[in-house]
Amino acid sequence: YFKDLKNNPNLPYDWIRNKKTGEYIWDENVTSDTDSDLPKGYTYVGKGNKAIQADFDKNAGWWDKVQQFAGSGGPHVNIPSYIAGKLSPKIENAFLRQKEANRRTIHDPNYPYPNHTFSPIDFGLKGITRKEGILDSNEYDFRGTMDLGGKIIPYVAHFIVRNVGKHLANSIEYRDTFVTGGGHKLYKNAFVFKGSTNMIIVVSIGGEEAVKYVDDFMWNF
Question: Edge-to-edge, what's the strand order for the sheet holding 24-26?
Answer without folding.
Answer: 42-46, 15-18, 24-26, 77-78
